[in-house]
């Protein structure tokens, strides 16, 4: 990661992030405090609303209880079939004087168990027959309650009780003295007092506050704004509320508006069978009020401060960082060898001193590298001359030894041919350039092998497979001959001891294969024999020779045993490494009893 990114990340981590976290924590704390304070206030409000609703239901329950225990009402339920019109008129007046004298009462219907019904109500009421009453889902529950009221809220069973905002009470009428079941009372109430309660507490807080009475299924029975009655609460909120708990409050969206929704379960068990809760919805905008304006101002000031800090970072800190990165990029160019790079200082502060020091350092390094390069060139040239001096006497000694052996045998013609070939070989050795064309190196190798075949008759055969297209490829002279010499002297040593030309058809004959091939960016030379191979320990030590590689895993600096490898292989490996570099060189693969394969890799070029 570069310095600019580090400084930017540091700026974000130690300046921007703390301010952002501080602002976020402040905002969340203020929201939490507002929500907590309102939740406490809302709890008191809802409980007060609940107490008022309880008083309303308690009064209605008391009035109904008192009315149905009157003796004339009890006698009405004991009447037999065939009530005449006069008596029926008296019953209607009785119902009006008793049940409908209570202001919130809307209608009343008495049923006896002979399926007779007597009903009265305000204009527009619809009486419910006993057959319809028996179909109500709560009829069995009413009978099981045996006198305890079962309340039905508005819109709960509107198919039977109507869709008006009416509260319906159904209860079994018991005999005052024997407690026997005399009939069933169905009475409906229109509690206008609820609107006054909701409006009072709503005006105390805000006209935007909504109050609702919901049942255990979330059905909205009463809405003080007269818009959501008959709908479900869950279809308007994006969260969930537990309607059975004593009190619960939470922040959620109500009809897409962020609001505080609170619910309080009404404790109405002593007044009958019901499971209702009162719900309040208060918009969050009303609660946050001016605190949100303060938070917005703080946020705006924080953003301006961050922009100022960012501008300072870009104009001042950024300029210094760009100059440092400029120095770093220049140093990278120096690392890859571009010593002509110079840094230009455009200011008069400390950066100009840094630029001058950098330029002076690069100039000094350039001078030192030139001195080292000249010294290394002289050293490499001396090493090459020394290695070639090692190869020439070694080869001459072996060749003269072969000529001497032939002269002792009075093989004059062979001696002549060998001397001729030796002269050709010496002309290549004394060639004034270090590199020669590959074709000249191959002629040198062919003359050398013919000399060795004169010396070791029937010991080996050879094959040379070099494409004509590679004839002009330059190669260090005397590269292949030492490798072939090693194969003959050490790889075929056992074959020589068995006696050449003895006519033994089972004796294995040596074979040398010299080949060349072209790759994408190099020329590969192969030297392969079927001789005795190189022992594993020798091969591992040979792997430690600079410029050579093998399949072994160990590298050591131990000297090579001359009795099995000789000087040729290490010298050729070192020459290739020094002349061509580490990308090129030699690889040796060998296994005792299976011969040796040597691969030499050189650059693909052509002689000028």
Tell me what you see in this structure.
The protein has 608 residues and is α+β, with helices and mostly antiparallel strands. It has 15 helices and 18 strands. It has helices spanning 3-68, 71-77, 85-98, 130-134, 139-145, 158-161, 193-205, 284-335, 350-408, 412-429, 438-455, 481-491, 493-497, 536-543, 568-580, and strands at residues 105-111, 117-121, 150-152, 167-174, 181-189, 210-215, 220-223, 247-254, 257-265, 276-283, 435-437, 460-465, 474-476, 510-518, 522-529, 548-550, 585-590, 596-603. A hairpin with a 5-residue loop joins β17 and β18 (596-603). The longest helix is centred in the first third of the chain and has 66 residues, at 3-68. It is elongated and about 170 Å long.
Total strand count, please?
Answer: 18
Alpha-beta content class: alpha+beta
Spatial extent as radius of gyration: 57 Å
Uncertain residue segments: 497-503, 549-564
Mean pLDDT: 80
- Number of helices in the DSSP assignment: 15
Described by strand count, sense and barrel closure, the largest sheet is:
6 strands, mixed
Relative helix content:
40-55%
State the separation between the terminal residues, measured CA to CA. 48 Å
Report the sheet-strand fraction. Answer: 15-25%
Shape designation: elongated
Q: Identify the strand order in the major beta sheet.
A: 12-14-15-18-17-16
Domain HAMP: 318-370
Organism: Paenibacillus ehimensis
Main location: membrane
InterPro entries: Bact_2-comp_sensor_kinase, dCache_1, HAMP_dom, HATPase_C_sf, HATPase_dom, Sig_transdc_His_kin-like_C, Sig_transdc_His_kin_internal
């Amino acid at each position: 990661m570069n310095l600019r990114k580090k400084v930017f990340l540091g700026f974000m981590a130690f300046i921007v992030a703390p301010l952002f976290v501080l602002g976020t924590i402040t905002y969340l704390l203020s929201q939490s405090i507002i929500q907590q304070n309102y939740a406490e206030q809302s709890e008191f409000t809802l409980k007060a609303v609940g107490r008022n609703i309880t008083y309303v239901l308690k009064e209605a329950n008391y009035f109904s209880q008192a009315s149905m225990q009157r003796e004339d009402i009890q006698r009405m339920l004991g009447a037999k079939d065939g009530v005449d019109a006069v008596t029926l008129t008296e019953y209607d007046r009785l119902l009006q004087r008793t049940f409908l004298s209570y202001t919130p009462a809307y209608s009343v219907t008495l049923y006896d168990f002979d399926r007779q019904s007597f009903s009265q109500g305000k204009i527009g009421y619809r009486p419910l027959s006993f057959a319809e009453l028996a179909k109500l889902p709560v009829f069995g529950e009413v009978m099981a309650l045996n006198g305890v009221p079962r309340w039905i809220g508005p819109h709960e069973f509107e198919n039977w009780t109507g869709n008006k905002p009416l509260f319906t009470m159904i209860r079994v009428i018991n005999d005052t003295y024997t407690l026997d079941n005399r009939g069933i009372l169905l009475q409906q109430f229109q509690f206008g007092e609820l609107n006054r309660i909701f409006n009072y507490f709503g005006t105390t807080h805000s006209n935007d506050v909504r109050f609702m009475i919901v049942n255990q299924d979330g059905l909205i029975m009463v809405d003080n704004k007269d818009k959501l009655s008959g709908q479900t609460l869950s279809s308007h909120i994006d969260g969930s509320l537990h309607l059975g708990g004593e009190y619960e409050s939470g922040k959620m969206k109500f009809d897409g508006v962020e609001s505080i929704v609170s619910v309080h379960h009404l404790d109405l068990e002593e007044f009958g069978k019901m499971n209702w809760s009162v719900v309040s919805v208060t918009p969050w905008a009303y609660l946050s009020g001016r605190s949100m304006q303060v938070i917005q101002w703080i946020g705006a000031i924080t953003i301006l401060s961050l922009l100022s800090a960012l501008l300072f970072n870009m104009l001042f800190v950024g300029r210094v960082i760009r100059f440092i990165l400029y120095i770093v990029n220049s140093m990278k160019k120096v690392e890859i060898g571009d010593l002509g790079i110079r840094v230009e200082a455009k200011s008069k502060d400390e950066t100009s001193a840094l630029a001058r020091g950098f330029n002076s350092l690069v100039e000094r390094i350039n001078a030192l590298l030139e001195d080292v390069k000249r010294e290394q060139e002289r050293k490499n040239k001396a090493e090459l001359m020394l290695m070639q001096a090692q190869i020439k006497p070694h080869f001459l000694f072996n060749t003269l030894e072969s000529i001497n052996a032939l002269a002792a045998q009075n093989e004059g013609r062979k001696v002549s041919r060998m001397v001729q070939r030796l002269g050709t070989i010496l002309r290549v050795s004394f060639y004034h350039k270090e590199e020669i064309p590959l074709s000249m190196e191959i002629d040198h190798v062919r003359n050398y092998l013919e000399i060795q075949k004169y010396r070791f008759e029937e010991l080996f055969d050879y094959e040379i497979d070099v494409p004509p297209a590679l004839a002009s490829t330059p190669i260090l002279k005397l590269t292949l001959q030492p490798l072939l010499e090693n194969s003959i002297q050490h790889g075929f040593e056992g074959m020589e001891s068995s006696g050449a030309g003895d006519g033994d058809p089972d004796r294995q004959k040596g074979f040398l294969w010299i080949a060349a091939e072209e790759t994408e960016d190099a020329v590969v030379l192969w030297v392969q024999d079927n001789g005795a191979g190189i022992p594993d320990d020798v091969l591992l030590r040979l792997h430690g020779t600079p410029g050579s590689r093998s399949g072994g895993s160990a590298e050591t600096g131990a000297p090579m045993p001359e009795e099995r490898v000789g000087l040729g292989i290490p010298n050729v490996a070192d020459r290739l490494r020094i002349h061509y570099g580490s990308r090129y060189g030699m690889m040796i693969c060998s296994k005792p009893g299976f011969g040796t394969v040597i691969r030499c890799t050189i650059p693909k070029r052509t002689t000028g």
